[in-house]
Design goal:
The structure is a single chain. The strands form two sheets. Strands 13-12-11-7-10-9-8-14-15 form a nine-stranded mixed β-sheet. Strands 3-2-1-4-5-6 form a six-stranded parallel β-sheet, sandwiched between helices. It contains 13 helices and 15 strands. By secondary structure, the protein is of the alpha/beta class. A hairpin with a 5-residue loop joins strand 9 and strand 10. The N terminus is likely disordered.
């Protein structure tokens, strides 16, 4: 077995990300897989969520885990042990670009903090790899469009990790809505979690020896190391994440988009307000209310920390309502769900295993249940809410051009500035 020790090079080179405006209408053929041939995976990011993804994929009979990459040597060691426990013998990398140079790797699983998703995914597509990228897909709106362009240009399968689409209760709820069982939908309630951050700030310090903090930051602004800003806690700082709005919105707003048939579109107006931690030591909302208005007048109301908006997604129509959350489906009146849908009913993509769906699509070359365009559109709805809260005014959004109307300040927030030498190329 090769050594699992990470190097401490920590050097940075200009990203090779290339997207381009060309968007191919289909996914190009990959190499032909034999019936018993394994799909070779590399895992980029093996923290808590990343190790969970590693275990999920490593347990599939047709998968070989060939490589693991992380900037924290402690996490690499744990992930290596987990992979070896399932019969895999991966090689460890500190720089994801070295992993992408491996010609034997068919696809990568991206489980890095949000501010890395675009670079990891775009570079992987350019290297000819299919991608399973964790949700939320992006840190900013225009990153998502560049990711879609890269996937289409290079003919890659890209699955977003919004895995609720692969659970029966969510598919059932959305099929009932799409087939008019609750009449015309006029309101959707989306309840998201409140922050579960550490309770108090801590002083800055030197990064631990096992962490290449410079590489952890990557394209994000240079900041002193603080243990409350890294690993799980990254999601409470806007350099790296959109908070629970994007963390949980990428689940529950994604279901709202699915039920409304908006996978290639989004709202046209947004307004919102939020409250923040009284000590102001982190940068995301503690509570919020956001209203998204769609072109047909449908309102999607997002609530964080408000009892009148329950966690999950609630569709309210002229003839009933449906509330859905993990392991829970409540239909009012109950008769709506008891009557089977007719043969000519709208049927949604059926997946019962999000990771299995990705692997099957690598072989078939069809788009997965939560294709990169879908993930981008759902993440965009989340970002719109944060931008409206930040600016404190109603905004008008064009989902076709992906621009705000007559608002330069809002449009500037569609993309962040990457720290040199990192760059997204279009």
């Amino acid at each position: 077995m090769r050594s699992t020790r990470l190097s401490r090079r920590g050097f940075l080179k200009t990203s090779a990300a290339v997207t381009g405006a060309f968007a191919a209408p289909c996914i190009v053929p990959s190499r032909a897989f034999g019936a018993n041939e394994r799909i070779v995976l590399g895992h980029i990011g093996v923290g808590g969520q990343g190790t969970g993804n590693l275990n999920g994929f490593a347990g599939q009979k047709d998968v070989s885990v060939a490589a693991i990459c992380d900037v924290d040597a402690t996490r690499v060691a744990k992930a290596m042990k987990a992979a070896q426990g399932k019969g895999h013998m991966p090689v460890a990398f500190e720089d994801y670009r070295r992993l992408l140079e491996r010609d034997d790797i068919d696809a990568v699983v991206v489980s890095t903090p949000d501010h890395w998703h675009a670079l990891n995914t775009i570079d992987a597509c350019a290297a000819g790899k299919d991608v399973f990228c964790e949700k939320p897909l992006t840190l900013t709106i225009l990153e998502g469009r560049k990711m879609v362009n890269a996937a289409r240009e290079h003919g890659r399968v890209v699955q977003t990790g919004s895995m609720q689409r692969s659970s029966k209760e969510f598919r059932t709820a959305c099929e009932l809505v799409r087939n008019g069982r609750i009449g015309k939908v006029h309101t959707v309630l989306v309840g998201i979690n409140t922050p579960n951050h550490p309770g108090a700030p801590v002083p800055d310090s030197e990064p631990p020896a096992e962490l290449d903090y410079e590489m952890w930051l990557g394209p994000a602004p240079e900041r002193p190391y603080n243990k409350n800003r890294v690993h799980y806690n990254f999601r409470f700082f806007r350099d790296y994440s959109g908070g629970q709005m994007t963390n949980w919105g990428a689940h529950h707003l994604d279901i709202a988009q699915w039920g409304l048939g908006m996978d290639d579109s989004g709202p046209v107006k947004v307004e919102g307000a939020g409250t923040f931690h009284p000590q102001n030591w982190h940068e995301v909302t503690e509570t919020c209310r956001v209203t998204h208005t769609y072109a047909d007048g449908t309102k999607v109301l997002v609530g964080q920390g408000h009892k009148d908006i329950p966690n999950g997604t609630t569709f309210i129509g002229s003839e009933g309502k449906i509330h859905v959350n993990r392991g829970k489906l409540v239909v009012e009146p109950e008769e709506i769900a008891k009557q089977p849908l007719p043969d000519d009913a709208v049927r949604l993509y059926e997946s019962n295993d999000h990771k299995r769906d990705f692997l099957d699509c690598i072989r078939s070359r069809r788009k997965p249940i939560c294709d990169v365009e879908v993930g981008h559109r759902s993440a965009t709805v989340c970002h719109l809410g944060n931008i409206a809260i930040d600016l404190g005014r109603p905004l008008t959004w064009n989902p076709e051009t992906e621009e705000f109307a007559d608002d330069d300040e809002a449009n500037e927030r569609r993309l962040t500035t990457y720290r040199s030498p990192w760059a997204l190329k279009s």
